[in-house]
Write a structure and sequence with these properties.
The chain has 223 residues and is an alpha/beta fold. 30% of the residues lie in helices and 28% in strands. It has a 7-stranded parallel beta sheet, with helices on both faces. A hairpin with a 2-residue loop joins strand 10 and strand 11. The longest helix has 12 residues. It starts with a helix and ends with a strand.
Length: 223
């Protein structure tokens, strides 16, 4: 019974793979590289439940009356139904976040303008970067395309430049992402994970994934 229990624990941790008649050590994790930039519409239907779980948890870290930055992306968008009902100031460069919040009461809403990227619904470029650099933010919540080692990845350099400036303006910095983004590399690394206050993730994160992230920052996930 002890051997069986040990094998089950090692399998759950991702250290071994159960096979007929025994077990074998798992190969070293393969770090996947995104091959193209997916559109907002393509991302919207991926890992919906996992994104919602992370988004609900992230929204719980927003204090009533605070000024927050909400970045682009389908995971951050799912935070909106769970935001505090009281007074809130929201800054965003996402047309989708803006539209979802436009009719919300008790929300002072600021849309950062600039060059528009239809693929993601983000405003970027020098005008957007200049505007965000003048704003004080209590907490920034940004989605990502990948996390690998100490690198935080996105697909587009201009979006990366802007997201870096948004994080730099914030007192607290949070990445909101489901576990599928861990051990994934994309085109452009825009921030160090060690400079982030926490990764807010869904409950599907594995022990190995959690360990790889906690080398650099906290992980907040359902218990």
């Amino acid at each position: 019974m002890t051997v069986r229990r040990d094998l089950e624990e090692l399998s759950a941790a991702g250290d071994i793979e159960r096979v007929r008649g025994g077990a074998r050590r798992c190969a070293s994790p393969v770090h996947s590289m995104l091959r193209r930039e997916y559109t907002h519409i393509e991302k919207r239907d991926k890992n919906v439940a996992e994104k919602a779980e992370a988004a609900r948890l992230a929204a719980g870290h927003i204090e009533e009356g605070s000024t927050v930055f909400l970045g682009t992306g389908t995971t951050v968008e799912q935070m909106i139904p769970f935001l505090p009902s009281g007074r809130l100031r929201v800054v965003t460069n996402s047309i989708n976040v803006f539209n979802l919040l436009a009719s919300r009461e008790n929300c002072e809403l600021f849309l950062i303008g600039g060059a528009f990227r239809e693929r993601t619904g983000a405003f970027v470029g020098p005008l957007a970067e200049s505007a965000i650099s003048q704003v004080g933010i209590d907490a920034a919540f940004i989605g990502v395309n990948g996390l690998l080692g100490n690198d935080v990845y996105t697909s587009n350099m201009e979006e990366g430049y802007f997201q870096k400036k948004a994080f730099d303006q914030a007192d607290s910095r949070y990445i909101v992402a489901d576990a599928s983004k861990i051990a994934v590399r994309d085109f452009y690394s825009f921030y160090n994970l060690s400079d982030i206050d926490a990764l807010i993730c869904d409950g599907g994160i594995t022990p190995n994934q959690r360990t790889s992230v906690e080398e650099f920052t906290r992980v907040i996930c359902p218990t």
